[in-house]
TrEMBL record:
Keywords: Monooxygenase, Oxidoreductase. Coiled coil: none annotated. Residues 1-294 form the Luciferase-like domain. The keyword Repressor does not apply. It comes from the Bacteria. PANTHER family: BLR5498 PROTEIN, LUCIFERASE-LIKE MONOOXYGENASE. GO terms for molecular function: monooxygenase activity; oxidoreductase activity, acting on paired donors, with incorporation or reduction of molecular oxygen. This is LLM class flavin-dependent oxidoreductase. One of its GO terms (cellular component) is cytosol. InterPro entries: Bact_Lucif_Oxidored, LLM_FMN-dep_put, Luciferase-like_dom, Luciferase-like_sf.
Length: 365
C-alpha cells in the first residue's frame, strides 16, 4: 500500500499571528514538503492544480519536474489535473515529458476541480463539465496508446495524423486515477477503463464515501477488469497531530475556525465526528485510518492533506515527522497483514511495464 501527502497549494493567512506567506514562500514550502516526504519514507507526493488566488500550483508538471530532479524514490502525482479545461494534447505531452525526466515515477489524478470560473477562462462551459471529462480523457488515452491519431469530437478541433511527443516512457502511459467527491459518472468512467478511483474523503461522511467506492468496485467488475475487491482505490485524509491529543486540538482550533474551506461552519468537534478529519494523537490517527478499510475495503493508496489553512512550514514539517516515525510504519504493517493475497498493489511504472512485457511474451508463444 502506498502512503503519501497531497497539497492544494493555498496561500492562507496564519490566524495566530496574521502573517500571510508570499507566493514565492508558499511554492518553496511545497517543494520542501515534497523533499521531506521522501526523507521520511513516504511513497507519493501529489500537487493540486488551480488557476485562481489564493492558490499557487497552476503548473503541476513544472513543480514535479523540479522535485523529480531532487528525489530518487518518490512517486510524483497530482491531486487534480483538470481534464475539463486543459487540452488533452498538452496533458499527454507534459506528463510524458515528466515521465522521462523522473524515470517513470509519475502518475496523475484526473478531476474537474471545484472552481466554476475556471471554465470560461479556458474557453469552456461549466454546464458541459461531465461531457468534457469523458471526451477529453478518451482522447488522452488514445494519444498515449496510438502512435498516429485521427480524431474528431465536440469540444476541440479535429486531429489528423497527429503524434504526441514525447511518446510515453517504455511505451507505458502513466497510471491514471480519477478523482471525484460527488459524481457517480466519474466513478463509472474509472471503472470502464480499469483505472484507479480516488475519493477525496475529507468533507463527506463515511456513508457517502462508501457508496461512491462501492459503485466503482461493482462497475470495475462489470467491465471485466477483475473482481470488485481487486479494483484500484485511493483515499484522501486530513490530520493534525501532537503527542497529546488535547494539545493537538488546542493548537489546530484557530486554523480550523478561520480556514476558508470550513471556517464558520460546524465546530471542530462536530466536523471530526462527521467527517474523516482527525485531530489528536498519532495513535488516534492510526485507529481512524485503519477504520477506513471497514467501509471501502482493501485499498491501494492513502494520501494525507497536512499543509493547509495557514499552518506554518515548521509545523507542517513537525507533522510529517510524526507521520513518518509513528503513524505510517504501523499503518503499513497493519494494512499489509489484513490484505488478501489476490488484492493487487498500487500500479507503478515498473509493474505496468512488467505486465506489458508478460503480455507480449504470451502473445509470442
Amino acid at each position: 500500500m502506498q502512503f503519501g501527502i497531497f497539497t492544494v497549494g493555498d496561500v492562507t493567512t496564519d490566524p495566530t499571528n496574521g502573517r500571510t506567506p508570499s507566493e514565492a514562500e508558499r511554492i518553496k514550502a511545497m517543494v520542501r514538503i515534497a523533499l521531506k516526504a521522501e526523507e521520511i519514507g513516504l511513497d507519493v507526493f501529489a500537487t493540486g492544480e488551480h488557476h485562481n488566488p489564493p492558490f499557487v500550483p497552476s503548473s503541476p508538471t513544472t513543480m514535479l519536474g523540479y522535485v523529480a530532479a531532487r528525489t530518487e524514490r518518490l512517486v510524483l502525482s497530482t491531486s487534480t489535473t483538470l481534464i475539463t479545461t486543459n487540452d488533452p494534447v498538452k496533458i499527454a505531452e507534459d506528463f510524458a515529458m515528466l515521465q522521462h525526466l523522473a524515470d517513470g515515477r509519475v502518475d496523475l489524478m484526473m478531476g474537474r476541480g471545484n472552481t466554476g470560473p475556471v471554465y470560461p477562462w479556458f474557453g469552456q462551459d461549466i454546464r458541459q463539465g461531465i461531457p468534457l471529462a469523458v471526451e477529453n480523457y478518451d482522447l488522452l488515452r488514445r494519444l498515449w496508446r496510438e502512435d498516429v491519431v485521427d480524431w474528431e469530437g465536440k469540444f476541440r478541433t479535429p486531429l489528423q495524423s497527429f503524434t504526441s511527443t514525447p511518446r510515453p516512457l517504455d511505451g507505458v502511459p502513466p497510471f491514471v486515477w480519477h478523482g471525484s467527491i460527488r459524481s457517480p459518472e466519474i466513478a463509472e468512467q474509472a471503472a470502464y477503463y480499469g483505472d484507479g478511483f480516488f475519493h477525496n474523503n475529507i468533507f463527506w461522511p463515511k456513508e457517502h464515501t462508501q457508496r461512491m467506492v462501492d459503485l466503482y468496485r461493482r462497475r470495475f467488475e462489470h467491465y471485466g477488469h477483475g473482481a470488485a475487491d481487486q479494483a484500484i482505490v485511493g483515499l484522501g485524509g486530513q490530520v493534525f497531530m501532537r503527542k497529546n491529543s488535547q494539545d493537538a486540538v488546542r493548537e489546530f482550533r484557530p486554523y480550523f475556525d478561520h480556514a476558508p474551506v470550513y471556517g464558520g461552519g460546524p465546530s471542530l468537534e462536530e466536523f471530526t465526528e462527521q467527517t474523516p478529519l482527525t485531530v489528536g494523537s498519532p495513535q488516534e490517527v492510526i485507529d481512524r485510518t485503519l477504520g477506513f478499510r471497514e467501509y471501502v475495503g482493501d485499498y491501494q493508496r492513502q494520501l494525507f492533506l497536512m499543509d493547509h489553512a495557514g499552518l506554518p512550514l515548521k509545523t507542517v514539517l513537525e507533522q510529517l515527522d510524526l507521520l513518518g516515525e509513528e503513524v505510517v510504519p504501523v499503518l503499513r504493517k497493519e494494512f499489509e497483514s489484513m490484505r488478501p493475497a489476490h488484492v493487487p498493489d498500487a500500479p507503478t511504472h515498473a509493474s505496468l511495464l512488467a505486465a506489458k512485457e508478460a503480455k507480449k511474451a504470451e502473445v509470442a508463444k
